[in-house]
Structure to design on (216 residues):
């Protein structure tokens, strides 16, 4: 069974009632660092494929499960990710895989928009919506706020609507989320797998650096 039905998604986004500025913060970080999953299984892409940054032959692979409406995910992407990208991803040391784990209607909407955009603009949209999360996430009319940002990255109202009506895309997100939960034990966001080792919470740069360096 899907975590979120199509009817619930449309109704909740229209009402603007389910944004969840929550997640797992620094206090929870590394709480499950002893949990390890098979890299062969972890790296099997879901029905929508993966969005990846970094060298294919990088010695360390980091997989992040995140929700676009999770405040701790936004904190990680604003405070930790830029340095992670500069020091590890761009230098060929880390291959970074971003996977959607939407926890409410708004997160589904933004994840779908990023998937509907040209693949080369995926991370640009992710970065923008994390940067402006409070702007759209706390808006009284969240639908209009998300649409406004979508227009800034090239969507029209028609293409925005068409994206949110894409049943295969919606189902693909649910399938990937279900697998993350049932097979890898993902229960909240953000959750990271660093060479298969689970790390839960919004890792600081020093924390994620320590975990990465173990494999270099």
């Amino acid at each position: 069974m899907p975590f979120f039905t199509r009817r619930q998604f449309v109704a909740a986004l229209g009402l603007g009632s389910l944004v969840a500025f929550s997640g797992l913060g620094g206090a929870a970080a590394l709480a499950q660092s002893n949990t390890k999953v098979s890299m062969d299984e972890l790296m099997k892409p879901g029905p929508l494929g993966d969005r990846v940054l970094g060298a294919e032959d990088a010695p360390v692979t980091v997989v992040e499960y995140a929700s676009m409406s999770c405040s701790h995910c936004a904190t990680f992407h604003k405070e930790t990710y830029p340095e992670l990208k500069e020091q590890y991803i761009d230098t060929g040391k880390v291959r970074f895989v971003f996977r959607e784990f939407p926890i409410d209607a708004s997160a589904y909407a933004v994840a779908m928009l990023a998937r509907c955009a040209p693949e080369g603009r995926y991370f640009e949209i992710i970065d923008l919506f994390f940067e402006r999360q409070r702007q759209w996430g706390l808006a009284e009319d969240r639908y209009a706020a998300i649409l406004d940002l979508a227009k800034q990255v090239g969507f029209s109202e028609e293409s925005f609507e068409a994206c949110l009506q894409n049943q295969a895309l919606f189902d693909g997100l649910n399938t990937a989320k279900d697998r993350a939960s049932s097979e890898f034990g993902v229960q909240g966001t953000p959750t990271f797998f660093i060479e298969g080792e689970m790390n839960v919470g919004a890792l600081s740069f020093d924390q994620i650096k320590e975990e990465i360096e173990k494999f270099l």
